[in-house]
Amino acid sequence: MSDVINAAVAALTEKLAGGFDGSAKFVIEGEGAIVVDADGVRASDEEAAVTLTADADAFQEMLAGELNPTTAFMTGKLSVDGDMGQAMQLGSLLS
Q1: Are 11 and 65 in contact (CB under 8 A)?
Q2: How far apart are CA 83 and CA 85, in angstroms?
Q3: DSSP 85
Q4: Contact at 8 Å (CB) between 32 and 50?
Q5: Structure confidence at residue 55 (pLDDT)
Q6: Which parts of the chain are beta strand (E)?
Q7: Pick from 76, 59, 73, 68: which is nearest to 95 by CA?
Q8: How open is the CA angle 62-68-71, to the nearest 5 degrees?
Q9: pLDDT classification of 93: cutoffs 50, 70, 90
Q10: Is 4 helix (H, G, I), strand (E, B) or coil?
Q11: 12-58 pLDDT, tens per residue?
Q12: Could you give phi then psi for residue 20, rounded to 5 degrees?
């Protein structure tokens, strides 16, 4: 597992400490995937209700609060496939 994925799992675990009742997969291009659901945050490539895909730089900027997830989506830095409602819920937890 890459250092980027390990750092992202740790950061998402901290940010989503209040819990997330949906299922989402973050695909970090060239690094791997992370799943967030009721069981927590883990490196995994299993199916989820929504898949969010970004490059490592955009993903790290979103986690750091430097890039709003909605802005990332609107500017093409983040693609969303699946349940847009869950993506928006997750985006509000990350910002």
Answers
A1: no
A2: 5
A3: H
A4: no
A5: 96
A6: 24-28, 32-37, 40-43, 50-54, 78-82
A7: 68
A8: 120
A9: confident
A10: helix
A11: 998 888 778 899 999 999 999 999 998 899 999 999 999 999 999 99
A12: -140, 120
